[in-house]
Write a structure and sequence with these properties.
By secondary structure, this protein is mainly beta. It contains 2 helices and 8 strands; from the N terminus they run ββββββββαα. The chain has one domain: Proteasomal ubiquitin receptor Rpn13/ADRM1 (PH-domain like, Roll), CATH 2.30.29.70. Strands 1, 2, 3, 4, 5, 6, 7 and 8 form an 8-stranded antiparallel sheet that branches. Strand 6 and strand 7 form a beta hairpin. The longest helix is centred in the last third of the chain and has 13 residues.
Length: about 140
């Protein structure tokens, strides 16, 4: 099983509790890595018009049961999801970059810019299913 979606990186400042999107386009690929582990690969897409200090790619091996994804509802400027690790408390945040078609189709009932689309919600469910521990 594999899953791909467009997402940029977000820098999180622990002291101010402020999440700031890092300029540039990205893509996340999640797939089975064998032995029950899951591989997360973030890669940059295209060239950013601003100079950034982010790497072109980053890969992590995730252990089922140790990490989970959640929507960061407090972020009011975009659709942000967080990967949180239970063992260390570490977290990684990403901003979803696929246009929110739910928002564009529903002009008179305009959705909040931070509200997840149906596609976003499906991605979140699939991501968490991939990280579930086998019973």
């Amino acid at each position: 099983t594999s899953l791909e979606f467009y997402a940029g990186k977000v820098e999180y400042d622990e002291s101010t509790h402020r999440a700031t999107p890092i300029p540039g386009k990205g893509k996340i690929t999640i797939k089975s890595a064998g032995d029950g582990m899951v591989s997360l690969l973030w890669t940059a897409r295209g060239k950013s018009s601003t100079a950034t200090t982010i790497d072109d790619s980053e890969e992590l091996l995730l252990f089922p049961g140790d990490a989970y994804w959640r929507h960061v509802k407090q972020c009011g400027t975009g659709r942000v999801i967080m990967l949180k690790f239970k063992s260390s408390g570490d977290r990684m945040m990403f901003w979803l970059q696929k246009p929110n078609e739910d928002n564009e189709d529903n002009v008179e009932n305009k959705l909040d810019v931070a509200q997840l689309s149906k596609d976003d919600e499906e991605i979140l469910v699939k991501l968490n299913e991939m990280l579930k521990e086998e019973e």
